[in-house]
Amino acid sequence: MPDDIFDIVDEDDRVIGSAPRSQVHAGGLLHRSAHVLIFSDSAGGRKILLQKRSKLKDSHPGIYTASCSGHVDSGETYDEGAVRELREETGVRVAASELLKVGKIRARPDTGNEFSFVYELEIPESAPLEFPPEEVEALEWAYVADFEKSLAEHPENFTPAFAVAYEFYKERAAGARQKRKSK
Predict the structure, then answer these.
(1) Are the CB atoms for 35 and 119 separated by under 8 Å?
(2) What pLDDT score was predicted for residue 2?
(3) 3-state DSSP percent of the chain in helix, strand and coil, to 5
């Protein structure tokens, strides 16, 4: 993995410095990430796009994670990081205003010491997807009910951060949608 530069943040998510990825992870330093959960409504029901991580990844290789997730680079906002990661990991190009902002999860061990902003995006299941094979093994649509059953019965098949982000999403998405409609 490239040694990208990440902002180091304090307990209140304020930037207090920056360091290479390897140092941030090795030191367990607080930093930032973005998770975008992509959905599509089909005749058979609602689907979620799952990302299967490449076997070359340095953490959680070969298991499932959010449709798109990644670190927020130094100097980026959460929105900028989410839009960049979407483009890099799925080929989907959107403006930040097209993402539903669900909310931010506090940094903790099961998020990899990352403050994680969670977003929702709706796209057609037929939308073209592209991904770099060194990062992503596959992008797969799954019915939400089937995915939730698999997550409950086999959590080891999913990254811990994704499990946290999805649970957070389920608790907050309806409120975020309502808030967006009232604007």
Answers:
(1) yes
(2) 60
(3) 35, 35, 35
